[in-house]
Amino acid sequence: xxxxxxxxxxxxxxxxxxxxxxxxxxxxxxxxxxxxxxxxxxxxxxxxxxxxxxxxxxxxxxxxxxxxxxxxxxxxxxxxxxxxxxxxxxxxxxxxxxxxxxxxxxxxxxxxxxxxxxxxxxxxxxxxxxxxxxxxxxxxxxxxxxxxxxxxxxxxxxxxxxxxxxxxxxxxxxxxxxxxxxxxxxxxxxxxxxxxxxxxxxxxxxxxxxxxxxxxxxxxxxxxxxxxxxxxxxxxxxxxxxxxxxxxxxxxxxxxxxxxxxxxxxxxxxxxxxxxxxxxxxxxxxxxxxxxxxxxxxxxxxxxxxxxxxxxxxxxxxxxxxxxxxxxxxxxxxxxxxxxxxxxxxxxxxxxxxxxxxxxxxxxxxxxxxxxxxxxxxxxxxxxxxxxxxxxxxxxxxxxxxxxxxxxxxxxxxxxxxxxxxxxxxxxxxxxxxxxxxxxxxxxxxxxxxxxxxxxxxxxxxxxxxxxxxxxxxxxxxxxxxxxxxxxxxxxxxxxxxxxxxxxxxxxxxxxxxxxxxxxxxxxxxxxxxxxxxxxxxxxxxxxxxxxxxxxxxxxxxxxxxxxxxxxxxxxxxxxxxxxxxxxxxxxxxxxxxxxxxxxxxxxxxxxxxxxxxxxxxxxxxxxxxxxxxxxxxxxxxxxxxxxxxxxxxxxxxxxxxxxxxxxxxxxxxxxxxxxxxxxxxxxxxxxxxxxxxxxxxxxxxxxxxxxxxxxxxxxxxxxxxxxxxxxxxxxxxxxxxxxxxxxxxxxxxxxxxxxxxxxxxxxxxxxxxxxxxxxxxxxxxxxxxxxxxxxxxxxxxxxxxxxxxxxxxxxxxxxxxxxxxxxxxxxxxxxxxxxxxxxxxxxxxxxxxxxxxxxxxxxxxxxxxxxxxxxxxxxxxxxxxxxxxxxxxxxxxxxxxxxxxxxxxxxxxxxxxxxxxxxxxxxxxxxxxxx
Length: 932
Known about the structure:
six-stranded antiparallel β-sheet; globular; alpha/beta; single chain; five-stranded antiparallel β-sheet
């Protein structure tokens, strides 16, 4: 590790944002590509001015600088040695302009976040990459992202309006400024003059113009965007479009403004299964001519993986995938009539093909979602099925559509020739753009020689077909040695001069796009090690990161996994010092500050729940004294909850600082992961659940459910109102419905406190007790179990899964069984609604909104919604976790002036109350009020 240059460190206003611990450097070393470079230091940048100061200092000290935001790039361009600058955390602003026709956004915002704000205006971004949930605007510009439908017409380059750039000199350029050309010339006169001379050199060479026009008629992210020399003549606009696709090697993109495109409301989709890949690709010219919006190709290996996944389209099931291939065909239109005409054309073409079954176009949203979820997660799903200890390498190329069938056949021959078995081909066939994936352990002379030979043969195949070696994923390190081969000496020299002009010190992402070493693509390849089975199939795609509550505090799920890999690799090579350092910091950064909320699994294409691994670590490292105490608590849970409630009631009557001082003293002695910290948002204790009696709700009717009121509602009483349990029982009564309450209810719990902390014995005790109580209460009538806290509903569902018992959250029960019997009157003008991680995973968010809409004139779920990370007592053990997790959502809610705030879980209500300063209640409390 090279120490960070003093002048670079001095350019960072807050030294706490300079990270040099081994765990930080290792966590940022991995991106979604097959390359691994570990930075010497990481800086979390605050703003464009600070980035300018860093670049000025880096130019002086010759410090290499790589910018990192989403880290979803696949060619090695978002990782580097030297200094890595994190621009995800401080650059997330999104401004919707002109009623959604334009949008201005910073580089840390994801495509999904931007589109969520545009959707209410009927607009979206033009680029539609499959990684939209995690890829950020910085990468969208830097890689000239396109995607499934946008082609070359609505990609980043074509829809860009302006950029705010920070040059290597530190100069900030706003190309939207009416005086941008003049200001740029004043600040960087030599740059402007040389840039215009370089343009003149290109446009006056007919051979260069012809080659550029031919290659950029297709998708093309190979080298720099030389088409900008033909498309623009003003210095600022030319510079902005040269930076598109430059992968962080020419300037930093601090802000981008795009022209948006309309969302076409009429959509029809089908999945057509062909007998062979050749048959599918040879059908493409006719399908393209019908005006298809998307034509997504998936080969037999893709289909085999999809057949093993839950929720994938029915069309790919019911047969053994050997030679088959599928096309996901979709048409978009502004109205149903126009859509019908388009779909009829497509149906006619497909009817002439020898398909496995009829290709029926449908506008069903659920079917479309299943197809696209499968397609968008295909790379990670296929890569996740690779053998342990191997690397997944994804490449993408493009050829003219009419050459695609022959190119696919040639590619399959290369797979056989170089013995890459189970390789997969998929991609955006409408554009002649295919992706393919290889898996291998890229180490040792034989494996590396095979890979080098394959790459050379691939280059011949694609260039002979008149294609581009990179279509979407960027040149990166993977194809840098072949840029000259694709463009020839003249245009390659133009690129080299452009790089030197904008980055004379060579500090910006060295080794990316421009690298004259013919073996550059063979350096720094990942050689993964096998780790715990819960996470071993991770492909480091980064899809999990935007939903992780600890992403702005410590580590993300991907980072938790890559640190484990780094620690295992260090152990295997005998680097005990590094192992010790990583494990020391991992306890807090990895294990303690994981909310174990499972949200990462909802975003992961291979269904990894990193929280499950953290639970295992907690279980393996559980303090035996604490484990024994929690086992005893499971035995006497009723007394424990009542004692806790009493303690909270006493505390609430005392000054908060006095109580907090006591808990802080205990935390200092026993540890912050053991003793919760008292906070002002904590209410007095709640009522005993025993007081409910044996039956709740209406009298004289047969119970239709078993009611398990959550113990959190008993321990934490309502700050305002009557609480979820009382609200639910009153709603039952008003609806003429009753439910039975198990005997000994005060002693029952969903088991989450034990499972989340890793106390297996206590969890087993509680599981046994709950199962027996539910069997007795239902009297073998198979009554559903209803719980009034979403996280506890999820916990009871896990506890009772093997019992064949249906577990329903009280919100979902109210929406389906009670609302039709009630006549609510809205009690709020604007309801700020906070779904929980559990409500999301249970699939009850639609029911939550339905109840919200029954009690309020308007319901809003924040665009910045996320798990609050209160996670039982985790938010009390580590308040900084909840503070970091809720900050974006709290900032959004603060601007609403909502007159009601609600959620569906007591501890989440406490977390959001603390974050916003507004009193959050259970949504059923509002429904009870609305039906009085």
